[in-house]
Design a protein that fits this description.
Blueprint (H helix, E strand, L loop, with lengths): L1 E13 L2 E8 L2 E8 L12 E6 L5 E3 L10 E12 L3 E8 L2 E8 H7 L6 E6 L5 E4 L4
Antiparallel strand pairs: 1-2, 1-4, 2-3, 4-10, 5-9, 6-7, 6-9, 7-8
């Protein structure tokens, strides 16, 4: 599981859905929460952990133009573990290690190598929040 420590900087809610913006250093990421009325009571200024699965990270090289994915993580490839069907790619994103599990076909198509500049992409509904300090 990937984890970014951050602080909630904005919350937009309607019905049982909330878009929660989290600052992680100088970057901002968004989590879409369904049935967001439950505990803990999310609030601006709250310290949280932003969590997302390795299998939910897509990778792109030389990405240009608009895209609907809210969470774009510019990083550098620090490790590639190639398997027969799946490969694990580790990125350094502002000092945080981010793991992505992608197909080896995709890894080959992108010609991923150590030191490559890439973007990790995660849909907002794949981000989970946990109150910092919670188990």
């Amino acid at each position: 599981m990937n984890r970014f420590p951050g602080t909630i900087v904005a919350i937009e809610a309607a019905g049982g859905v909330a878009l929660v913006d989290v600052a992680v250093g100088a970057r901002r990421y968004t989590a879409t929460l369904i049935d967001a009325g439950g505990a803990p009571s999310w609030r601006v200024g709250m310290a949280v952990a932003l969590l997302f699965q390795e299998t939910e990270v897509s990778l792109a090289k030389n990405l240009s133009g608009m895209i609907s994915m809210r969470n774009r993580m510019v990083g550098t490839v620090t490790a590639v573990e190639r398997g027969r069907l799946l490969s694990k790619v580790t990125l350094d994103v502002d000092g945080h290690a981010v793991d992505a599990v992608i197909t080896t076909r995709s890894c080959d198509a992108l010609q991923l190598a150590l030191g490559d500049a890439v973007e990790g992409l995660v849909k907002a509904n794949e981000m989970t929040l946990r109150e910092e300090g919670a188990a």
